[in-house]
Amino acid sequence: MAGSPDKSEEGNVGNVAQVVVVLVTGGCGYVGTHTVLQLLEQNVHVVVVDNLAGVTRGNDEKKPTSLERVEELSGKTVDFHNVDINDAESLDKIFKLYRFDCVIHLAALKSVGDSCSLPLDYYRNNVAGTVTLLEIMKKNQVVKLVFSSSATVYGEPQYLPIDEQHVTGQRVTNPYGRSKYFIEEILRDLCTSDPKWSVICLRYFNPVGAHPSGRIGEDPAGVPCNLMPYVAQVAVGRLEKLAVYGNDYSTPDGTGVRDYIHIMDLAEGHWAATKKILKEKGAKAGEEGAGAGGSWLAYNLGLGRGYSVLDVVKCFESVSGRPIAVDFVQRREGDVASSYSDCSLAVRQLEWKASRTLTDMCKYCALWCTFESLHLL
Amino acid sequence: MAGSPDKSEEGNVGNVAQVVVVLVTGGCGYVGTHTVLQLLEQNVHVVVVDNLAGVTRGNDEKKPTSLERVEELSGKTVDFHNVDINDAESLDKIFKLYRFDCVIHLAALKSVGDSCSLPLDYYRNNVAGTVTLLEIMKKNQVVKLVFSSSATVYGEPQYLPIDEQHVTGQRVTNPYGRSKYFIEEILRDLCTSDPKWSVICLRYFNPVGAHPSGRIGEDPAGVPCNLMPYVAQVAVGRLEKLAVYGNDYSTPDGTGVRDYIHIMDLAEGHWAATKKILKEKGAKAGEEGAGAGGSWLAYNLGLGRGYSVLDVVKCFESVSGRPIAVDFVQRREGDVASSYSDCSLAVRQLEWKASRTLTDMCKYCALWCTFESLHLL
Question: Which member of A20, A196, A266, B289 lies 3.0 to 4.6 Å from A282 by CB, making a disulfide possible if both were Cys?
């Protein structure tokens, strides 16, 4: 076992005073860094596995820049292993080094556009990678997992707001979304087959914003695919104007409505899910509840309301004090008018609620983007 | 390149006189052996990759017994490689040895029951294994694939007969079926992403029977999960009686109705699909049809009509001359009353039709089972 943190640094879950050791796959990415920081603040011993595929700066260092900043912000250290989850042998070695209480599995490719042109990469990294991770977890008797899923598993919304009872896997328009859906189903089958497993799938809506320090945020590599990073780049002058795909939707201002969630709220959602899963006692043979399978749960993580493209633009202009040039272009195939979540299940069962506003999201996105721009100069 | 067959042994597709080289994964199994034999009879140069996981006898030999019998029956040889499709490195070496025109991908775990208790094994071998195979194919520019899918992708039938337009992936009751559905979708995404690919998914109904010689057939390991092998084992006295799950379905005699297809018809279906796919010209950049993606097609392979459990029992009694003791027990969860195919698309587009009757299926199943029983004495 690796060195345990001092008594004073012990992670606490409810009344159980013990060091909690959590493996975070993909811990160097956007959701990863904010989640790791959240865990460190809860005195969890965090081990990160990341292949640095999504990290464009500091990935030639012993520890990538993003994780160094997390350490600076928290004043604590993270164990980092540059390992691909498809590398079963290396992964197994890490499982021998620590006794993990839980795995938070964030490692994945996440570009919808790339997934359409390179689907095999998505099925390799997301689906096959997860199968490998699960095999190694099973082999090492680690049976608690928090999985980074996505609202894309719902496909085209059949009704609004979308709750967790909404059908999944139908009319999913891209391989990225399908890879998340497949993984959810694999996890469900695994829990059905074995009562020891506990899995929580967190279905993210649109994570945006950054840590209040402005020191960690979404990696600004290339042209952003998502609205807010794009808006931010227009605001700082790195891109000329924002293309708005369609302004004739049946929404208040004609532009698409989406549910945005502040990355800090999302990170807190991961801690809430981790606390819940650590309290779950796996049913043992003969115990009450055994035979019914393990525990598989899915929760929406969103703000629970929608904002239009123009809402976001106006808010960003307001917080940044800069005008955002907008160009209305044709609708994109596969885009829907509106999508937003019902997050009441997470409120009830995870005792968690998104509290940051759209203004917060824009403000910290702008701060991070400015910081990164300065840093890049 | 490995040694080419003599001119006199050249595989012919339509008017194109050239040696056709086909990789058959899982070529030592039930569908595999019959398909390989069919290909050899068409003078195709056949290379088999199999990890022998589904082969219980002769798997310690250089070439397993099943494949030796195929060679005896055909008077031709097969190149055999004991390789797991998850082993990318070994698989790649095989792709460097030959220039494959097409891959027939049959390697998979296939027990519905086992898939419920060991889902990870199914997602590893079937889904992740296929992703590895596709990566190696892509790397080596082999872009034609015939895939062994299953009618289980249709889930609970929404209407009868089931044609290829029937929804897939909904209410699929087991991980085996889900693994086949996931692979179909992965293949579809791959074809959408790249016009060079041609894929045909063959959705098998219930393959039964054996080669007329009685020398190859379904491996009789353990207690069979499927009806006809079970009936056969009762007939030869290895099992006492047949459990019939439910006799109160809304079918003519109250027992479940299924579509059975003779394995020889199925093997011919693979050759028909192979011929079609070899004729497909992959669209190249700039060519007409390019941009619309590659070709992804799915065909039902069944008899196109259903037989009840009691139909099968009576037919088997008649051809074997032995009584089959039957025990009516409760319905199994997930079983439907009736399921049978509309195979008219395959008739039109593959120029193939199942011609063997239920009597043929029972007769050759009995012959194979008797042969195997004698052999085991």
Answer: A196
Q: What is the dihedral of CA A88, A94, A98, A99, to 10 degrees?
A: -10
Residue B15 has pLDDT above 60, yes or no: no
DSSP one-letter string for A120-166: HHHIIIIIIHHHHHHHHHHHTT--EEEEEEEGGGG-S-SSSSB-TTS
Q: What residues of A are in the B interface, CB distance below 8 Å?
A: 116-120, 123-124, 127-128, 131-132, 134-135, 138, 169-170, 175, 178, 182, 185-186, 189-190, 192-193
**Mean pLDDT over residues A163-191, rounded?**
97
- CA separation for the pair B241, B234 (Å, rounded): 6
> Across the interface, do B178 and A169 touch by the CB < 8 Å criterion?
no
Catalytic, B176? Answer yes
Q: Among residues B206, B216, B237, B9, which one has the least CA distance to residue B112?
A: B206
Q: Name which of B298, B303, B306 is nearest B343 in CA terms.
A: B303
In angstroms, the CA A110 to CA A283 distance is 34
Number of other residues whose CB lies within 10 A of the CB of residue A284? 11
Residue pair B146/B273 in contact (Cβ under 8 Å)? The answer is yes
Give the CA dihedral A190, A193, A199, A205, nearest 10 degrees. Answer: 60
Q: How far is B315 from chain A (nearest CA, A)?
A: 37
Would you place residue A237 in the very low, low, confident or very high pLDDT band (cuts 50, 70, 90)?
A: confident
Say if CB A161 and CB A341 are below 8 A apart. yes
What B279-282 contacts at long range (C-beta under 8 Å, 24+ apart), as own/partner pairs, is B279/B13, B279/B14, B280/B144, B280/B198, B282/B143, B282/B144, B282/B195, B282/B196, B282/B197, B282/B198
Instruction: Note the pLDDT of residue A252.
Output: 96
CA proximity to A161, closest of A343, A308, A354, A342: A342
CB B319 within 8 A of CB B363: yes
Which residues on neighbouring strands pair with residue A204, listed in sequence order?
A: A150, A301
Residue A324, CA distances (Å) to A221, A236, A246, A328, A332 in order:
20, 10, 17, 13, 21
- How confident is residue B229, by pLDDT bands cut at 50, 70 and 90? confident
Distances (CA, A) of B176 to A186, A288, A355, B126: 11, 29, 42, 8
Which residue of A118, A119, A131 is in closest CB contact with B128?
A: A131
Answer whether B132 sits within 8 Å of A128, measured CB to CB. Answer: yes
Angle between helices B30-41 and B263-279 (to 10 degrees): 60
The pLDDT value recorded for residue A192 is 95
Mean pLDDT of B28-35: 97
Residue B360 pLDDT level (bands cut at 50, 70, 90): very high
Arithmetic mean of pLDDT, B10-31? 79
Distance CA A331, CA A249 (A): 9
User: Is the CB of residue B229 less than 8 Å from the CB of residue B177?
Assistant: no
How far apart, in whole angstroms, are the C-alpha atoms of residue B25 and residue A48?
A: 37
User: Which DSSP string corresponds to A185-220?
Assistant: HHHHHHHHH-TT-EEEEEEE-EEE---TTSSS----
End-to-end CA gap in chain B: 43
Would you place residue B5 in the very low, low, confident or very high pLDDT band (cuts 50, 70, 90)?
very low
Is the per-residue pLDDT at A278 higher than 80? yes
